[in-house]
Amino acid sequence: MDEVKSKLTVFFEDPFYVGVIERKYKKRLEVVKVTFGKEPTDGEILEYLNNNYSKLKFIKADDTYIKKDISELSPKRLKRMVGKEMKKKSISTKSQDLLKKQYEERKLEVKSKNREEKKQKEESLFELRQMKKKKKHKGR
């Protein structure tokens, strides 16, 4: 059976509270960014995750971002790593890189979609003008 490990980091990114969910699934790191708005309570976060976790669109990280499995580490090293994680205030740079990559991909998708819609609109207007010319020329 596959094991899924998730980590949620909530922080304030002016003017909203943002959550970054990192999950490790089948030795792959996946990340998604969620905007909460005002400061969420623990109950609101839990309710959001219960209702929307399956709808979230995670992006996959490259293999370079995968660290060693925690079970392979010595207990002392694990304790030090946990202490360092607790002191961190911001999200990991891996997650930031992946979110930036996701943002850029979506931006390109929207740009190409808008370009296609504009092209379709121009073609339909051209066809309409041509039909009007033909109709006017025939005297109908």
Radius of gyration, taken over Cα atoms and rounded to an integer in Å: 24 Å
Largest sheet: 4 strands, antiparallel
**Rough outline:** elongated
**Mean pLDDT across residues:** 82
Distance between the termini: 73 Å
The counted number of beta strands is 4
Structural class: alpha+beta
What sequence of helices (H) and strands (E) makes up the elements? EEEHEHH
Unreliable runs = none
Commentary on this structure:
It is a single chain. The chain has 140 residues and is of the alpha+beta class. The chain contains three helices and four strands, in the order βββαβαα. It has helices at 42-52, 75-87, 93-138; strands at 4-13, 16-25, 28-37, 59-60. Strands 1-2-3-4 form a four-stranded antiparallel beta sheet, covered by helices on one side.
